[in-house]
User: Fold these one by one.
Assistant:
Number 1:
Amino acid sequence: MCRHLAYVGPAEPIGRLVVEPPHGLYRQSWAPRHQRHGTVNADGFGVGWYAAGDPVPARYRRAGPIWADLSFADLARVVRTTALLAAVRDATLAGADAEAAAAPFAAGRWLFSHNGAVTGWPASLAGVARALPPEDLLSPAAGTDSALVWALVLARLRGGDGGAQALADTVLEVAAAAPGSRLNLLLTDGETITATAWGDTLWYRAEPGRRAVVASEPYDDDPLWREVPDRTLVVASRADVLLTPLKDLTEDLAPRTLEEPRR
C-alpha cells in the first residue's frame, strides 16, 4: 500500500532523488522490490518540496500513475530542493477523491504521508475521531483512512507536540482502536524527518553532518542503506538518525489520546 520517501540535505534536483535512481520511487510505482501489500502503485502520486527562504512547501500531486505524467519528469529535472517528501499511491479502497487523496498532505510547514491501511475503516476510528476539533471533521483532506490519520497527527502538532510525539501517540492510539493496522507514517518540516515502521518496510540512508533519506525501500544498492526494525520510531536530520523502539518509549513519549492533557 504505497511507497514513500523523505530527504533532507544539500540542494538536489527532485529527479535525482525520485526519478533517476535505478530503483527510485518512479520505478517503485510499478516494480517495488520490498512491498508487502499490493504490487502496483498507480492510484496517484505527489511530491512536496521546500524552496530557499520559504518554510511553506510547494506540492505537485496527480490522481494517475507517476509514469503517465509527462510533465513531471521535466519539472523534476530542474527543480532543486534541500528537503522533500514524495509518495506513490496504491489506494486501500477505490474512491473519487482524485489527487486530494494523494500524499503528501500538508499544513503550514508540515508534509505527511501514510503507507499502510487502517483495519475496519471507517467504523474502527469513529471513537478516536470524536476527539478531533469539529472543523477538522467537517473539512478532511480526503475521505480516506490516511486523511483521518493525518488529521489526528495534525491536531497534536497544533496542540504543541513535536513531530516524534505526534506520530508516536497517533500510531499507538490508532493501533489500539484498530488492531492489525499498518501505520508507516512519514512527516517532515523541511529540517527533520520523523517516521514510524509499523507493519511495512522502512529504510534509511545517512551521511552524518550532510544528508539523510528515509524511505519505504532503498532506491539503489548502496551499502549505506539500513533497514528499520518493525515497531520503531525514526527521527532523522542532516546531523544524525535516532531509532527508538515504540514499545520502549520514554515517559516523554508515553502514549496519549487527544482528549488527555500533556503532563
Number 2:
Amino acid sequence: MSEKPTIILVHGFWGGAAHWSKVILALSRKGFAKLNAVELPLTSLADDAERTRKMVAQQSGPVLLVGHSYGGAVITEAGNMPNVVGLVYIAAFVPDAGESPGSITQSNPPAAIANVVPDSDGYLWIQQDKFHESFCQDLTADEGLIMAVTQKAPLASTFGDNVTAPAWKNKPSWYQISSEDRMINPENQKKMSARINPRKIITLASGHASLASKADEVAALIEEAAGDVT
C-alpha cells in the first residue's frame, strides 16, 4: 500500500494554524504522521498562496491540501503544484477564476456580516462580544472567548483578491458544508460545492468553526480523501 500523503491544513480569516488543533489530534490518532498547518499572513491572496506553496514545496511526497473558510481560496490558488494530489474544503470559499471571497459573499451575505468591522489600519475584525454567536456558536462560551481574543484579522483588501487559476479544475476535491454557518452563507456553500463536482459532499449541522466543533467528522472526511488519492 502506498504511503499516506502529507496533510497540509490551511486556516481562514480570524484564526491561525491552531484553529486546526482538534483535527490535528484526530488525524494523529488515525495514524497520520505527516501533518503540517500553515500560518498565513492574511495580507493578500498572493502572499497567502505563496506561503502555502513554500510549505508544499518542502514535502518529499504527495500532499493533500485542506482549507477552512478563506483557506479554501488559498488552496484553490496554490493547489496546482505537481505534488498536490487533492483538495478538501471545510466550510470554505471555492472561487472560480476572476472571483474573490468578497464577490461570492455579496451574492448571499451571511447572517453575521454586520458583526465584521474594519479598524483604522484597514484590518477586519469580528466584534469580540459577537464572535461566539457569529463564528462558533456550537462551541462553549469559553472556547468562543479564546477564539475571539486570539482572532487574527485579515487586511480587508484580501477579501477582494481574485483567484487566477483554480486548482479544483485539475485536482480531485471534497467539500464539507456547515448548515448553520453564519460567516459563509450555507446557500453559497451549496452552490460552490456543487459546481466543482467533488468526489464527496458532506453536510454537518455546525457553525462556521466545524473544524473545532465537529473535528472527528472533519478528520473522517480528510481520511477518506487521503485514502482515495493514495
